[in-house]
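Deliverable D2.4 — example input (structure tokens):
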């Protein structure tokens, strides 16, 4: 337990719980004290890497992620998150720099799968990399087809998602849609409906996207962050902003949030929606709420300047 004198009683807890609650400032403060007192604490460096990942501070995320894998080179998830950090930095880098980083993304995802062939998230991320990346940095549809089969053997619904992504890359939307629907038939949870909605968004089939989002939200099988993901799809498409805002408010009202959708990011996203709706005061309040949890979150800092 990392209880700090500067934390409020409800914020104090272990770092993983603080990250799940979206209290990144508290998590970072706690973790920095841990690594200062124990420089060989691989798990704390890993959690620091995740915290900086959510803050979009890619250099810090990579540095702490590299430290974690150096200290403990046998944890699959360490390589998974390090690969994700390299991927986000590569997306913002120049072509030549991005190519070198993309190779590191590939190597880290591959290492994560090698260490734990049953790590579904690592297999999924590796498949996505193979689908999207060019062959010169390690990507390739042939490789994606292999990892899709591995996923299908472990989780048939995820396998159908992977086959759908391959079909999309091959510019075969009919087959992709069939595979997304096959995943829903196997497991009609919110995630699979939202995967279908994302496909419709990419195909500019927005009415069908909205219908799939509604199906996801009516599913009895949804995680708390499904509300965030649904809102992201709607707001990103400029559709049903009122519904997107309602989903985010519902998410933020829950007793527990999810690290996959940090509360500070949900406040920021809600603020951007309110700004689009012309509610600058409401948007400013949400951006301030985001910064109260993650004071170094630059998107919220920049957005507040526009409305505050």
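Example output (designed residues):
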């Amino acid at each position: 337990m990392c209880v700090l004198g500067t934390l409020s009683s409800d914020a104090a807890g272990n770092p993983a719980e603080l990250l799940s609650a979206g209290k990144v400032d508290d998590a970072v403060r706690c973790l920095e004290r841990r690594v200062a007192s124990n420089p060989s604490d691989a798990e704390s460096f890993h959690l620091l890497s995740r915290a900086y990942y959510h803050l979009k501070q890619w250099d810090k995320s990579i540095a702490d992620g590299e430290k974690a894998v150096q200290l403990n080179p046998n944890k699959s998830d360490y390589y998974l998150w390090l690969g994700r950090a390299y991927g986000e930095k590569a997306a913002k880098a120049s072509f030549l720099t991005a190519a070198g980083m993309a190779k590191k993304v590939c190597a880290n995802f591959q290492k994560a799968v090698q260490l734990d062939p049953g790590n579904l998230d690592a297999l999924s991320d590796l498949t996505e990399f193979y689908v999207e990346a060019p062959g010169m940095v390690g990507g390739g549809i042939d490789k994606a087809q292999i990892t899709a089969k591995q996923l299908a053997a472990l989780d048939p619904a995820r396998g159908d998602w992977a086959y759908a992504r391959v079909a999309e890359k091959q510019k075969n939307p009919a087959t992709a849609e069939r595979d997304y629907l096959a995943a829903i038939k196997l497991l009609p949870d919110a995630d699979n409906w939202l995967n279908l909605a994302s496909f419709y968004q990419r195909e500019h089939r927005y009415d069908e996207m909205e219908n799939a989002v509604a199906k996801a939200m009516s599913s009895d099988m949804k995680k708390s962050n499904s509300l965030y993901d649904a809102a992201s799809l709607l707001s990103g498409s400029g559709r049903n902003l009122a519904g997107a805002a309602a989903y985010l408010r519902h998410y933020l009202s829950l007793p527990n949030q999810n690290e996959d959708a940090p509360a500070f990011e949900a406040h920021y996203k809600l603020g951007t929606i309110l700004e689009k709706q012309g509610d600058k005061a409401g948007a400013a309040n949400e951006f301030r709420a985001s910064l109260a949890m993650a004071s170094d979150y630059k998107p919220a800092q920049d957005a507040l300047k526009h409305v505050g």
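Residues 3-11 have pLDDT under 50 and may be disordered.
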